[in-house]
Structure formats: C-alpha cells, structure tokens
C-alpha cells in the first residue's frame, strides 16, 4: 500500500506517513519538529472529557471565585468580574482581551469539541462541522485559562498578607478544568477528526505522486514541497498539489492555501517592532495603583516583583520576573534575530533556529500572568480609601506587547528560514561573478584598444 505524504510545517520537507506504535511520535528528519503522533482513533474519551470540561466551565463562571474580607467589609468576585471592572474603569482593550482569553476562547474550544466529536461518535454529520473544526485551530492559542490560574495564585499571594481571602467553588472548578482540558487535547488526534469529516472520496497524495523515488526508505525525506509544486494547508496540514486546489482553497477543510504565508517576513517584522516600542511604556508606566488606608502607591511590573521579594515570596517573585520581564524581552530579541537572519538569507544552524522559533511560539502566552493578576485584584479590592486597586496604562501597554509578539510569531512562516538559507552566499557569488565579468570585459577592451 502506498503511503500518504506529510510535509513538515516548519521546513517544508516531504515525508511519507507510516503507522506508528502507540504512544510514539514521528519527527522531521530535517528540522526535528514533531510531524505527527501515533493514531488515536477513539473519540469517546476526549468527548467525555469535553462534556466534563463544559460542566466545570459553567460552575467556574457562575459561582464565586474569591471572597475578600477586610475591616469588617467583604467583596466577592467571579471569573467575569475582572472584565467588567476593566470596562467600568475605562480600559476596553484590557476588558476585551481578558474576556477573549479567559472566557470566550475556552468556551468556544470546549463547545467546538462537543459539537464535532458527538456526531462523529454517533456516525453522523451535522452542518458546519468543518467550519467549527477550522475555527478551533484559530481560537486554540488564545485560550489561556492555565495562565489565568497562575495569575490567580499570584493575586492570592499578594492579598493574603493584609486581608482574609477565601477561595470559592469557582476557584476549585478552574483548578479541575485545566487538567481536564489538557487531557482532552492529549487524548485526541486532530488528524483522525479531519479524516472523519473530510469529503467522501477525497484523494490523498502518496509517494507515487512524487517525481523522486522514496519507496525504498519511507522514513527518509524525499524532497521539499515547493520543488514538487506541493502545498500544505495551514489549518488541516493536508498536502495538496497546486493544481488540485478548489479555487485556491483546501479540498479537505476549505481554508485558503498559500505556498508560503503572504508577506510573512514584513508583517512579522512590523508587529515585532511595534511590540518592542510598547515594551518601554509597559515597564515605565504603572500597571496598577494600590490605595491602602488612604495612601496611594503606583506599582510598575518591576516594583511589583520587588515587593514580592520584600515579602519573602521568592518562588512567586521568580515566576512573575520570568513571565513578565524575561520572557517578553527574550522573545523580542530571539524573534528579531530569527527574522533578521532569514531576511539576510544566512545559513548556519538552521535546525537550532527552527527550534528557538518553536519555543518562542510556545512560551509567549505565559506573559499574560500580570494582566490576569491586575484584573483579579482590581475586581476584588474595592473598599474605597481603606483598600482599593485601580488598573494603570502600563497594563494596557504590557498586554499589547504580549498580543503583538504572539501575532508576530504567528505571521512568520518558519519555512522561510530554510527557503532563504544560503541566499546571501548566492548573492555574493553572483555579485563576484558579475564583477569578474566586468573586469574581464574591461581587460579585453584595454588589450583590444590601440595604444
Ligand atoms: Zn521539518
Ligand atoms: Zn485544509
């Protein structure tokens, strides 16, 4: 039986897909990225986990999250209170981002799993199933309940020193929800879902469709997709021949397919530059103002870490310092270096460059900890002059940095690292060749001219 083709989304090398033993992973032999995992054809476990996650999500959003007591006064908040407080305090951008990342995206993620997996398990099809599964791929990186939980723990650490804080039912629901969603993702094979919902009779490309012979060694890379005229769908990862596109769309999922992401390098550069500029106000302006017994004090990201150190909360201080100060700056510098090296067409350690890109893509979202912490504190501490916390412009700029760096990494097409490598050498070689030709012509002209 001929093997199906699969192209690496990080370097565009085409491999032939083999059945793997359970629990194993196939990696790209060229760049080392994960290509695919052993097939998990059963949908009952992820479906049960998705239904459990929905129940936990409803509890997390209806019951109290934290109860704050001080000087005989009590304030209770829910998961959505931070969104409302940001909106009321005149920070619509923060309200929107916290709503998307902590409520809307997790809800869409859970509901999309149930909407798709339930009919598949029953052997049926429902309208819009492909569109829902396609939207899921877009929404997935923006679901940040795990980051929210760390923000919640940091907020709790800050409050327990000077007030009594009691965790409500929603807090425990969020604690159970995160491993449930994680298990749901781990036990599900998205490739198996795409195969189930693909149009009937869809033909997949196999090794027989390649111009080079890869039949003797199915695990070795054969060729680059671009050289074979093969394109990979960004959404469902199907390998399609250029001529087989359905009016520029993927025949399986319906998403628009490009050989490379359009204007990838310039968009990624522009977004990263904007993030770099915003990083300055994010650290200069206060992220919140704390009023305690009539005395107001502005807190920047760095001074917030300092107060955690003074309080002896070293582990939390290290987490906040890493997520809020180290991660954004390291991400900006590393992505800038990758983009610049790609633009120049430098060769060199391409495998390492691809690995660094994959890591920066994964860690960026963890910087949202501080934004979530401010949203929880501002919603909970509202006792006027006794104790109150107002968000500051620094939090808006900082949230902007996190979003822009994430968008920049998404806009970049890592296959360009491999496409453009060695270009500079070629340009220099061409330039030298041209210079030699000019010199030879000049010499010939000089020799040929009458003295
Ligand atoms: Zn690869
Ligand atoms: Zn597709």
Explained architecture:
This protein has 2 domains: 1-39 and 199-245, no CATH class; 40-198 and 252-424, no CATH class. It has helices at 44-62, 81-88, 92-121, 129-139, 145-160, 169-186, 190-197, 225-228, 264-284, 301-310, 314-344, 350-363, 369-380, 393-411, 415-420, 423-448; strands at 5-7, 13-16, 25-27, 34-37, 66-70, 73-77, 164-167, 223-224, 230-232, 239-241, 288-292, 295-299, 382-383, 387-391. The protein has 451 residues and is α+β, with helices and mostly antiparallel strands. Helix content is 56%, strand content 12%. The radius of gyration is 27 Å and the shape is globular. Mean pLDDT is 86; it is low at 214-221 and 446-451. The chain contains 16 helices and 14 strands. A hairpin with a 6-residue loop joins strand 9 (230-232) and strand 10 (239-241). The longest helix has 31 residues, at 314-344. One zinc ion binds at residues 233, 235-236, 238, 250, 252-253, 255. One zinc ion is lined by residues 233, 235-236, 238, 250, 252-253, 255.
Main features:
binds zinc ion, 14 strands, alpha+beta, four-stranded antiparallel β-sheet, 451 residues, 56% helix, three-stranded antiparallel β-sheet, 2 domains, 16 helices
Structure, briefly:
The protein has 16 helices and 14 strands.
């Amino acid at each position: 039986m001929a093997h199906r083709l699969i192209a690496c989304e990080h370097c565009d090398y085409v491999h032939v897909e083999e059945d793997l033993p359970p629990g194993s992973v196939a990696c790209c032999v060229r760049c080392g990225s994960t290509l695919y995992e052993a097939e998990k054809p059963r949908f009952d476990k992820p479906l049960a986990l998705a239904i459990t996650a929905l129940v936990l999500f409803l509890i997390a959003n209806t019951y109290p999250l934290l109860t704050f007591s001080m000087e005989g006064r009590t304030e209770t908040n829910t998961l959505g209170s931070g969104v409302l407080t940001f909106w009321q305090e005149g920070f619509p951008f923060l309200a929107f981002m916290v709503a998307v990342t902590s409520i809307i995206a997790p809800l869409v993620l859970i509901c999309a799993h149930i909407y798709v997996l339930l009919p598949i398990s029953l052997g049926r099809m429902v309208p819009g199933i492909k569109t829902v599964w396609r939207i899921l791929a877009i929404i997935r990186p923006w679901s940040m309940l795990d980051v929210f939980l760390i923000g919640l723990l940091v907020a709790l650490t800050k409050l327990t020193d000077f007030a009594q804080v009691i965790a409500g039912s929603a807090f425990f629901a969020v604690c159970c929800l995160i491993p449930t969603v994680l298990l749901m993702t781990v036990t599900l094979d998205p490739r198996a879902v795409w195969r189930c919902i693909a149009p009937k009779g869809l033909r997949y490309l196999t090794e027989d469709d390649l111009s080079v012979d890869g039949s003797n060694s199915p695990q070795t890379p054969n060729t680059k997709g671009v050289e074979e005229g093969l394109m990979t769908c960004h959404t469902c990862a199907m390998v399609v021949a250029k001529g087989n596109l359905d009016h520029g769309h993927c025949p399986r999922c319906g998403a628009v397919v490009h050989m490379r992401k359009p204007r990838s390098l310039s968009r990624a550069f522009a977004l990263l530059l904007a993030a770099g500029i915003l990083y300055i106000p994010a650290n200069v302006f206060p992220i919140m103002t704390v009023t305690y017994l009539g005395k107001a004090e502005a807190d920047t990201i760095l001074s917030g870490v300092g107060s955690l150190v003074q309080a002896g909360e070293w582990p939390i201080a290290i987490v906040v310092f890493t997520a809020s100060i180290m991660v954004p700056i390291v991400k900006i510098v590393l992505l800038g270096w990758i983009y610049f090296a790609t633009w120049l067409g430098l060769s060199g350690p391409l495998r390492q460059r691809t690995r660094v890109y994959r890591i920066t893509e994964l860690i960026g979202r963890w910087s949202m900890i501080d934004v979530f912490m401010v949203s929880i504190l501002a919603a909970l501490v509202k006792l006027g002059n006794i104790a109150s916390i107002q968000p500051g412009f620094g939090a808006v700029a900082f949230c902007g940095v996190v979003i822009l760096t994430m968008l920049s990494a998404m806009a970049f097409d890592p296959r360009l690292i491999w496409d453009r490598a060695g270009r500079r050498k070629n340009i220099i070689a061409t330039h030298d060749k041209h210079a030699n030709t000019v010199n030879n012509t000049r010499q010939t002209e000089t020799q040929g001219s009458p003295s």
